[in-house]
Amino acid sequence: MHLLASLQHYLKLNEYPLRFLFVICFTALLSFQLSAQIEFSESNFVDLRMYIDTSSYSWEEDRIRHRGKDYLPFEYQEEQEVAEVYLYFDRGEGIQEIELMPSSDFEIQDSIFIIDDHATMKVKFRELTNANFLKFSFKVRKRDSAVSYVNLPLFPYTYTYVKYYAPDEQLYIGEEKVTEITTNRPDNIVIDNRWTEHQPINYQMRKDGSRILLNLEPTQLGTQSIRVPISVKKPYVKDGVVRYDLPSIEQSFSIKTGRLAFLQMDEQEITPNDDKTEPVVIQMESSRLLLMGKTYRVENQEEPGGALVAELFTKNRLNNDKVLCLLRPYAHHRKSDGYLYVKDGDSPRFVTNVDITPKSQIKDIYLQREGEDWEKSNVVYPGESLSVRIEGVALHKSQFSFPGIENLQLDSLIRNESIAVFKIKVPIDISATKIEIFDRSNNTNKYLEVKEFQRPRPFDFINLELGHEEHTVSEVDRPIYYEGNLTDLVISFDRSKIDQNRDINGKQYINIKVKVSNKDGNLIELYEIDEVVVCPNEKSIRSAHYKDPNCVSNGINLNNYLSKKTYDMDEWSRIELQISHVKDKYQEKTESKKIQIYLKRKYNFDIDVSFPGGLLILKAKERDFSNFSGVSFAMIAQFSFYQPGKIAKYQPYKVGAGFIAIDAFNFSESASNRDVGLVVIGSLYPSSGANRKLTFPLYAGFGYLMKERKFFSLIGPGIRVRF
What is the reported pTM? Predict the structure, then answer.
């Protein structure tokens, strides 16, 4: 309290900036308190129980203390074990939300589900043997909005057995023996690849694929023993004790003298020159039996008649107890194929061994993109990350480089004489068309060819401009009904959508087919526009590489191609567009879109000629209908109405006005009903016969008789002839 009062007094004496600094510090301290990181044992959680296969592991019951820290141990049999986790807590702690923080060591398969006093989830581990500092980190939010992070360290362990069966208990001085160690978990064995020194039997433990090999090289005669300690990455637990050391390999051998003296060369691997007559200068161990100024044959077998591998010329002795020699290799040889015998004629004098391998040479290049298989190709694209596999000979001696490539990583797990695998990332703004492959400073004359992306872009960059309407092709999923006179039909392109940021698609090659039909479905015109080239605009980072005089910059007005213009088309004409990618231009699956456009109308206006017959006519100031009239003649200007939701289908009624000649075809002298009238009339047609040439409608209307000068109304059937 005294300190707080002093601080308040101090702030009163100072300026505003110091007060502001105090507020910032206080806010930061408060945030730290609300988002604290704590260990599981210090948290509000009661227990965590994890089930793997048929085993269960509990924090309260099974946790162990290792190197001053508590862990939840669990045994695994597979590298990608699936675990079901139950997280228990006190219901009164007010926990509202629990979140498992993501990690590269496991995959969250089921989200956390809170039920009363516990939460459940499911995780799948990845590569448990190589996973270090494995832990669960929970983000816990309470009802008072306080957030904390709870860490629970995990301790995976597994049982690894190692057995060694010596195939032969006899070794010879100067000979290297390769044997195999049997184990159920080769990835869990710690391998250092180093030879021991100054021991009766020097050894090297190394890994070859999924095998653990033990190389032996005796140096002293007699019965000698080896003791090879074995350590593991992931320990095993015995009697509650964590153990990283397995029982050592112990074996005795009988070491015998070699029949021939072994002479070691200073070079363990020799690469012949292109001119095989040109020697390679080496140094060899000295021997009193090795004569100077003499040429020896180097063969691959002790018996006469062996294949000539090289010629060895001894030049002179050096002060370091070595002999300067000239070696002319004529064939390739591997140490694993056996020893080399230095012969004077057909008589073997010494034994040696060396790798004689060709120069590094690239034969084939394979590429693998994420989620795809390897393919034989050297074509890469800007901005992509991929793996490159080089196949050839003597690749273990090479040091490949790719000038212009960033983030180059060598996959050291896949590197041998015939294969080298790299992970590369091609810069998205790369300007070169070729990426040369160098071995050290030498050009291998092999390269990666940089091509522009040419992937089919969805049709979201293509728009249809119909008079006052605009539609995006990719969004059209039903027929388009355009009402009014269609002055123009323009296919335009939003080129900025083709390449967006790092989503590069390149040039788009489009085919456009146009089919025009009238309302009866009869074909009027068919036109096809082939290979329309649409290039990304200047906003694309690769725009400088899309130079093409055929690229379309403006839209395509179909009226420039059709003989029947859109503004001359009749009502309910159908324009069918089929827009598709040019398949030959792409390796990926292309798209095709079919769009139908109808020139919609609500009504139609025409002149109708009909022959009403047997009309009932009621004249003004008369109480009953006159007698049935004969066949009349009517010429009506009328409106026809289309049915909503249907294409070119009329409603069963019409409304119009015109002239009617009543009883027009009665030419007898007693014809008293003949007259001409102005009429407003409606007609009702059979629902299936509105478009027939000959129909029998029902008429009703009213008008004015010119001869009798009376208003009248009428109703009755008739005959309609449609021309």
Answer: 0.50
